């Protein structure tokens, strides 16, 4: 993004006022709209607040902006054109719609990461750049031609990728299916979005693990769903809880992440799986199985998906490359009965007209290639190494203040804080010290938990990051 | 997709019954669900209907399926597992949700094209494969590395692409903006989806051109919007109509495609543009300007967008590569005030977590490259050539039966039928003869119109396609 040029002879404040004047005159900030605060702009542009104050004074003297105490700085209504009061009230439009904004903590984290790219990031639920198979993918991209078909794609997804996934699902996940049952999506996120928007109606009750990734997604509330909780212990949820939720609230769907659950890392136990199928089949209840982490299993075989035992057809299966290869490919998939695939492919055509063939084609080449398996093995070893580094650091820095179960796969460690601390204050103290994490309450859990994504920071950042986090935590406990 | 192997010693009907048994046992067709009809399956698999009848008989004898007169063929409820009646009622879920299915004609066209890829396609609103810059893009992909960043992207879009678009918009569209006002979307489709979902609320009234592409998009109804019509004549809409709709229905937004309007090909006149800005500014009404076709202008300069004259900040501008380069890149953009971009980027993160960096990066290289301008010039010449071929064919085959205004840009020709014909029957007759088009009623217009996309068929298909269409039309007029 634009930054003032420190080599230029023009003073910084003048560069900034020129830049803002341009953005205002181009319509980015229409008459009457609020400008970012002096503090925020100073952070964004990497200058002192006093420089921004001078730039604002310049714009004020030209009649371009107006400041009123307590209500911030706005673009003048009188300066622009003859009837400036009739510019559309854009901020009212921005507040409209039935779509809820992201959770405040998630927005705050994203904002902090945008402004300070150097923050040590235990928050973003993805692999660090060095864990992605970039070289392998570059090689494949140079070996193949991906542009033979640049028209609109089949709304169910690129057929060669669906065919490649049928083999992948059989070999790696024990799932037998056909390409006509597979739909390609923009990551698990879009699969969940399509399910909540198209298969459920506002007012419907659904059951969700507690804690769960799903609580971090306002999409469930945006779809008008009523959420009910299935507490997760070290063996996962208790299937009997589903039965009682069904009796009380007629829940219409269950959302689960059985293997290396996000955020707790739990693997749903074999015994309870049997009970789950029993309950689901008795109630005719569909289970959405989100399975992004299984192939990260640090030791031994990857835990099987529910779908591989789904003799009764109760499972909608969701998978993705985001957590095992590269989130930037934006490739996920769903395995579902014919009527569901047809419905969702039709709806997605209205939303985005399908995905670009290029990343789909790259993904198909990658899973069919001889690079795929070695990549997975390397990933498992490196993730385990990072997990161990995180655990060492926590044990060294905070032996008396945290408790956790060591995850055997996945990207995250779910950490209980043994002292009561205010979630938001802890996050701000951490950001001040140059580190971010996700407060547990984002996942619908009681406060007093933190999710550390050990996959995301660079190896050399983990110890530093935890030492900063420890400082932040101790600052709050002492004060 | 799967087809029976005609070289195999196994009879076709057995291959088909085995294939269906597999799909049923894998859960694609759960117990109780409806199978495709014999006719449809025969079409899909490219076999005689009698072969499918034998395959069904085979499955019936094994107790896997059941047929009842008048209600089609279903998967048996009794064969699979102990409590088969408790498989989720998937078809009920498929009917749920507030998202409307695509229009029947659009579904029928897609189905026909899937089943018979050899149909001559005047229906799909895109370029033929030979008009896409595939070689240029392949060269660029081999020259650059696109995998340096394979993590989640900025939800507003890849910054280098936004920067490239700022220059593009200035140079080609006379729009001055900054990268912070630009948002990248999955084509115009996603821009419209985000606007209708996030900036408007169910029950809101909006104004739409008549006829308009927008009527082909159930997304407007899915968002619960009330649609009001702005009739298009040869100079576009009449801005005074906006004023009266505002008085009567308090419309909250206007959707327009001012240049080479889809489907009519009209260019909104200079005089009416002035009136439009006047009305919009008096009412404080936002105008969504969809501008996908301008750069196809066959002769002379591309018509300017409204946004380039938008001194009052009334316009939300939408652009895309789909109609001028390749729809398969899935790259579109929006230029909007800050508050709108923030809101929409936040919402889109919940829907799909942003686009893959790969096609964004390719698109950025392409518009910055020396290939871009020559590609546009070649495209204009070839589109004009195809338009002329279409017009010649229509004049030769149907001189007495159709009337149209020659479009000066865009991909479509809007054709009035001088005899009354049933839209649906005409489409079926045409499909039978190996050609598809879009019936005018899809665009909300009175029946008696047809949209021909001359950009989509191959050059050598145009005359044959129109001769088939002429046969279909004459068959209905005679009978």
Automatic annotation (TrEMBL), chains A, B:
Its cofactor is pyridoxal 5'-phosphate. Keywords: Aminotransferase, DNA-binding, Pyridoxal phosphate, Transcription, Transcription regulation, Transferase. SMART domains: HTH_GNTR. It comes from the Bacteria. Pfam families: Aminotran_1_2, GntR. InterPro entries: Aminotransferase_I/II_large (IPR004839), HTH_trans_reg/aminotransferase (IPR051446), PyrdxlP-dep_Trfase (IPR015424), PyrdxlP-dep_Trfase_major (IPR015421), PyrdxlP-dep_Trfase_small (IPR015422), Tscrpt_reg_HTH_GntR (IPR000524), WH-like_DNA-bd_sf (IPR036388), WH_DNA-bd_sf (IPR036390). The keyword DNA-binding applies. Residues 10-78 form the HTH gntR-type domain. GO terms for molecular function: transaminase activity. The keyword Metal-binding does not apply. In the C-terminal section; belongs to the class-I pyridoxal-phosphate-dependent aminotransferase family. PANTHER family: HTH-TYPE TRANSCRIPTIONAL REGULATORY PROTEIN GABR. This is PLP-dependent aminotransferase family protein. It comes from Paenibacillus gyeongsangnamensis. The lineage of its organism: Bacteria, Bacillati, Bacillota, Bacilli, Bacillales.
């Amino acid at each position: 993004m634009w930054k003032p040029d420190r080599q230029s002879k023009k003073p910084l404040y003048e560069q900034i006022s020129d830049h803002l004047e341009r953005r205002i005159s181009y319509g980015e900030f229409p008459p009457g709209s609020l400008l970012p605060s002096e503090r925020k702009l100073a952070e964004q542009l990497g200058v002192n607040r006093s420089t921004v104050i001078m730039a604002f004074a310049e714009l004020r003297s030209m009649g371009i902006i107006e400041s009123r105490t307590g209500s911030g700085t706005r673009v003048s209504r009188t300066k622009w054109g003859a009837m400036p009061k009739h510019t559309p009230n854009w901020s009212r439009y921005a507040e409209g719609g039935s779509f809820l904004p992201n959770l405040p903590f998630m927005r705050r984290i994203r904002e902090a990461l945008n402004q300070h790219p150097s923050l040590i990031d235990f928050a973003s639920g993805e692999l660090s750049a060095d864990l992605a198979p970039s070289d392998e993918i570059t090689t494949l991209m140079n070996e193949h031609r991906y542009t033979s078909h640049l028209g609109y794609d089949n709304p169910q997804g690129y057929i060669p990728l669906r065919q490649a996934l049928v083999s992948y699902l059989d070999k790696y996940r024990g799932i037998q299916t056909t390409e006509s049952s597979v739909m390609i999506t923009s990551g698990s996120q879009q699969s969940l979005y399509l399910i909540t928007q198209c298969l459920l109606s506002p007012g419907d009750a659904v059951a969700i693990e507690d804690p769960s990734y799903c609580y971090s997604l306002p999409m469930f509330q945006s779809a008008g769903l009523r959420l009910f909780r299935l507490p997760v212990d070290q063996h996962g949820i208790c299937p009997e809880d589903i039965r009682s939720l069904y009796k009380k609230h007629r829940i219409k769907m269950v959302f689960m992440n059985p293997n290396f659950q996000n955020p707790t890392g739990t693997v749903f136990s074999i015994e309870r799986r049997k009970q789950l199928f029993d309950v689901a089949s008795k109630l005719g209840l569909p289970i959405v199985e989100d399975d992004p982490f299984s192939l990260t299993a640090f030791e031994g075989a990857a835990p099987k998906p529910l779908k591989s035992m789904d003799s009764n057809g109760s499972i909608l299966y969701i998978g993705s490359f985001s957590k095992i290869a590269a989130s930037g490919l934006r490739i996920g998939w769903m395995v579902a009965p014919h009527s569901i695939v047809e419905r969702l492919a039709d709806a997605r055509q209205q939303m985005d007209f399908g995905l670009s063939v290029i990343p789909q084609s790259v993904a198909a080449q990658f899973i069919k290639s001889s690079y795929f398996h070695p990549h997975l093995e390397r990933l498992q070893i490196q993730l385990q190494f990072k997990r161990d580094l995180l655990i060492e650091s926590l044990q060294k820095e905070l032996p008396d203040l945290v408790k956790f179960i060591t995850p055997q796969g996945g990207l995250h460690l779910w950490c209980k804080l043994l002292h009561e601390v205010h979630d938001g204050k802890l996050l701000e103290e951490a950001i001040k010290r140059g580190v971010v994490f996700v407060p547990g309450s984002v996942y619908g859990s009681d406060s007093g938990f933190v999710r550390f994504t050990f996959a995301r920071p660079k190896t050399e950042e983990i110890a530093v990051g935890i030492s900063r986090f420890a400082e932040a935590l101790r600052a709050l406990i002492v004060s």
